[in-house]
Amino acid sequence: MIPEEVARLERRKALEDLDINPYPAEAHRTHTAEQVLNQFTTLDKSQEQVTLTGRVTIIRKHGGLTFLVFKDASANFQVVLRRDDVGEEEYEKFHKHADMGDFFEFTGPVMTTKKGEKSLAVKSYRWLTKTLLPLPEKFHGLTHTETRYRHRYLDLLANESSMELALARSRMTAAMRTFLADEGFLEVETPVLVPIASGGAAKPFETHHNALGEDLFLRVAPELYLKRLIVGGMEKVYEFARCFRNEGISPQHNPEFTQIELYWAYATIDDLMDHFERMLPLVAKAVSGSLTVELEGKEINFEGPYQRMTFHDAIQGETGIDIDALQDEEELRAAMLDHGILEAKDVIGYGELVDTLYKKTTRPKLIQPTFITHYPAAMKPLAKKDDNNPFYSASVQLLINGSEIVNAFNELNDPLDQLERFEEQQALSDRGSEEAYAVDMEYVKALRHGMPPAAGYGIGIDRLAMMLTGQSSIKELILFPTLKREASTEPSDETDGTQEEGQTE
Fold first, then answer.
1. Residue 212 DSSP label
2. What would the pLDDT profile of 244-264 be if each residue is shown by its tens digit?
3. Does the predicted model carry a pTM greater than 0.90?
4. Most buried one in 54, 250, 292, 435, CB count within 10 A?
5. What are the residue ranges spanned by the domains of the chain?
6. What CATH code would you report for 158-306+368-476?
């Protein structure tokens, strides 16, 4: 226990000895700080009693006059505590027992100081929460990256930029929901615990349900359940889905992440590309008020229309490799090794092989929003094949700054074709692939009942938020990213940055 915590515990005990509950159940707020600021002229004229609630972050005492900086979720606001207004006993009680970080209820009329500062003249106050640990030192904040992620509550308190990122992400998802509602899409929920981890090329997390006596998985994607709803007669559905993939952690990957998946009966990838060109500019403006974003020294423009090119042309234009002429796995592997792509030695299956070629050579060069269409069918086990060339799928991805933002395709609705694709994936799994799609016979059964032509997509919400806010890591946009467990639960030195006694400046 740090010395400051010992001192605060003593001050808590002193309050209890005075029959003051440092953690009352109720608060009686009449206004937020923002509402007071917006209504200040009216409140000043009426001298109406206002009650504010929130956290004290700064205490400045000048004899019988104390200036407090107080904050709630809406704004910072100044509170003025005067000995003559609250009385000697209450004034001294505050200074003897209050700490920066404590939550209070302050009641009084608004006023303007001699310096022209909008303030609240406190007539009475009440403790709402006694804090036992200090906040990060206000001049230096919380800077250590892992500490910020691990103690996000302190990061939000100390760093305004972190709070703004959290709010920006919320504005983004709200704008998407509004757009989709206006377009007639229905938001739904599907299972997180599933008997078969299918719908995505990923290694799942496994668990066990005691009552059922069965092993289950955390879903890697909601796709196959959402398409069951299309079979059931829902024509336009989507889900903001928490998904889980037992894979590595990087600036663009977290084992637990959020994506939106959407399925649209009687639509095609052409409809979806038009859909994205309508939605993403609206979302970008909702996040930052602008259609352009500064990202890693590059200016990204979200105003449509976006460039479009085929997967074949993108690969050939960057590498000279003609995948039309290299549709055999070993021939493609040899060509990749000739180009110095050594990872090709260990990759299993044509789909994973050509995906490696794409990610190592071509995708990093796609900076401005670009649609890449018609990926090889081997890369898209759930996508319908192109009507003109079955080697390719009717698929599209939106790439921004070398990262996949949207993955979309015309959905495979032929149950026999789907079964054959699943069997091919099973063969890859038997060869040792950990990312092959699992076979879901119940989904095949659903398709046998008939699914109309449909198109669908997935968007990584964390990654899109990262792009729209100009960040280089999704951890900045995930409030609690996955981290290795701390060896100790004791507070880190980073959190102990207030003054020695933690009471006044």
1. T
2. 999 888 888 899 999 999 999
3. no
4. 54
5. 3-133, 158-306+368-476
6. 3.30.930.10
